[in-house]
Write the structure tokens for this entry.
Amino acid sequence: MSNSDIVSEVFATLRLQSQLYFEADLRGDFSVQIPRERRRIRFHLVRRGRCCLKVPGGDTVELNEGDLAIVPNGVEQILSKTPDTPPVLLSQLLEGGACVDGVLRHGEGGGAAALLCGFCRFDEEIDHPVIAGLPPLVVVRPSDLGAEPWAATAIRLMSLESGLGGQGMTGILSRLLEIIFLQTVRRMTQAACAGENGFIAALADAQLSRALHAMHGRPEVAWTISELARLAGMSRGRFAQKFARSVGVPPIDYLTTWRLMKARALLAGSNLDMAEIAQRCGYKSVPSFTRRFKTAFGIGPGGFRRSA
């Protein structure tokens, strides 16, 4: 399994799904404050014009035509023509009827920016390090994708498809959002440098990635820190320290998280009986699996399956 396959597997298990919010036609000296919304990964593609984007604790970033902004973790953000324009709450615009037929219109005067806005949602009960470790803002610019024509093509296809407005547009755009997001995470994995911390850096580390491959490939195995350290070619103490520092959690805690992720995905998306799911996820019995699942999520696996 390659590192990019682990990324794909993580997001498939998190049940990543994309949807559109709306197209935005923003004019004049506009400024819109978008509220915090759970942990969704939000997107803004600038189809025409330019705008500014600011997230808490970060500098204002200018976005130009063709640029795609990815804002993980559902943080509050402000889209504006200039950074010093007082913002209007998005909720006020929506309550005032500014969004008609999937197009949010705000501001008066000359055209300033046309955006396509959407989001990715996932199983928010799981705090996987790949989500927690994403930066507060990622900007993908076509000018930076010279060596990756497939990524630039996907972004351009999004813009072209949204302009056609034909049948199936929403489904096509949603799938493209997921593709672009996974391409972005893969790019970050490939660009990770030695000495960096985070799940993406761990995937790029020759030693830690071997342990991650083992846990992902065979979560049913009763892995110990010693066995994982041997696979990584490190001493037990050095491996445990490096893994925890890079990934953000100790190895066995990560293994538990991955097993529970697999369990939730199997409960929601398969007809396997409880004993088979417990075995596939590394639990020797249904009672032990049920106790661990309920401790983690406050609901038993049977109740979760019915609700999912």
User: Anything to note?
Assistant: DSSP finds 13 helices and eleven strands in the chain. The longest helix spans residues 169-191. The longest strand covers residues 41-54.
